[in-house]
Amino acid sequence: MTDTGTSSFIYVTYIRTTPERLWEALTSREFAQSYWRGARPEAEWKPGGAWKLVLPDGTLCDSGEITAFEPLKRLGIRWRNEFMPDLKAEGWSLCMMEIETVEGAVKLTVTHSMERDGSKFIEAVAQGWPQVLSNLKSLLETGEVVLGPKYL
Fold first, then answer.
1. What pLDDT is stored for residue 3 in this prediction?
2. If residue 64 lies in a helix (H) or strand (E), which one and from where to where?
3. Which residues, including other chains, have CB under 8 Å from residue 75's CB and lie 6 or more apart?
4. Where do the domains of the chain lie, and which CATH numbers do they carry?
5. pLDDT tens digit string along 71-121?
């Protein structure tokens, strides 16, 4: 146990898709750019691989490292904001995405946390993740996103 507090954001959604399609959506740069509102994740999709989120104008938004890579089940990213000094100063967070099949659908649980009470970074991702994940769900189920491109 530590005396350090934790800030967390947890989002659970059920998507009418397969684990294979969801995994491809999470790890495909081109597909992800559609639901990430124009930003694009780039990564070496393996444990220890580099990860980054790049805005449409080429600005590095976030960087990190793949900490968990279990195809069709679990993806973990050690994550830090790079373009806002106050958020970058908070340090590293952990984003864990877990996939499970439930009654013919796929349950996606995203937990983004940081060992810091009152994290401004976690407050920021709590605004961004619902937009990104709503787009992901809609795109997989209907072929269209809910919200169009925007710099995050």
1. 53
2. strand 60-70
3. 26, 27, 66, 68, 69, 96, 97
4. 7-142 (3.30.530.20)
5. 999 999 999 999 999 999 999 999 999 999 999 999 999 999 999 999 999
- Which tokens in the block code for residue 13? 């959604």
Cβ neighbours of residue 72 closer than 8 Å, sequence gap 6 or more? 19, 20, 23, 99
Quick check: 91 and 114 in contact, CB under 8 A?
A: yes
On average, the pLDDT of the chain sits at 94
CA dihedral 81→82→83→87, nearest 10 degrees, is 40
Tell me how far apart the alpha carbons of residues 151 and 39 are, in angstroms, rounded to a whole number.
7
Q: Give the residue ranges of DSSP H helices in the chain.
A: 19-27, 29-35, 85-88, 120-142
pTM: 0.92
